[in-house]
Amino acid sequence: MRGLMLRSLLVVALALSLLISGGLSYNDIPDRDPRSLKASQLFDMIPAGKRGSCANRPVDNTLQDAAQIADKGLSVLEQLVHDAMTNNKNNQGVRWANMGYTMFGGKYKLENIPGDKKRRKKVRVTDGYSRVTKAMYNFQAVQFKLKNDRVQGKLMCGDEDLKLVHKLGDLGLEPKDKLISVAKKDPSNIKGYFLSRYWSPKDSKGAYILDKAFLVYIEDDQYEKWKYGYCHRGRAVMNRPSNLMVLCDRVWRSPTLRDTIRSQSSLIGKPIKDDDGKYLLDQQQTAGLDMLHETFHWISWDITDIKTSRGTAYGFSRCFQLAKEDLQQENPCDLDQSLRNADSHTLFGNGVTLNEVDWYPDGPKEQG
Ligand SMILES: [Zn+2]
């Protein structure tokens, strides 16, 4: 009786602790069809007609494309982690394995499965298993973000020049004190502007303002980099402290994933570079891919754009180089550069989503 009571107490305690520790975990990734996603469920956006508005941009489709690429990337990584058997008939599994281990610094061997009448082969991982597993967790975190139906960030579209302000006078506000000191005293003094909860104005050189929508804190060491505006340098950016994603005009000139897949000719057996020396895989750029790249930055401070001796690790060549270096590192502190690089994940997701991508040419595999 007592044992039973103890046991039932234990069950209750366990249930309670589950409830308390509960919250949301990545096991609770909303099982939503990517095509059902709406950008307004994830992002606050600037009203139509205002600068930086996304009103005339295909934001829903872009989010759906990003989620679709992430879905595919995650399912392939899950297959690799669970020792997926590859089907030699179409070699798709082998290509996936090669791509997964190529991008995240691992090696595998193909082995015959004894007695398998379909003559399938099994992928046996010889190195980098934990890195592929961690890549899978990163994809889960991205899924959790993209498929959530709670507004968690702000989205701004186009090359809007954000105005850098120093004084309240620059905003037409009285008194004309320095913005920083007023904001420090009482942020609510600046009515109508969004202030990030991470706002820490003591060292700030300035803040970007856009139609009273956002006030983005710029770190001292980031000031030079961003003083000409976010879109001066790149296609897109994630300002993580304020959860602001900016997708520049360059992004909106890219095709959709559907159009890319439709117009894509087979890349199998093609030289990995075109006549101009550009990597074919790097040219399959879509708006959804940009959103996915920025979402990898969004999920963790650790996921950045890694600097290498050859430049920032964007694109196939440098991501591949990072993965090769991961394989060669002996100092554990230097490991896992690929896992901290947004484009390594993004390229992998795109590669397994597009049709007929052949990742044999340079993969650091040990083919059996
Ligand atoms: Zn990046």
From TrEMBL:
This is Lysine-specific metallo-endopeptidase domain-containing protein. It comes from the Eukaryota. GO terms for molecular function: metallopeptidase activity. Residues 1-25 form the signal peptide. It comes from Penicillium alfredii. Keywords: Signal.
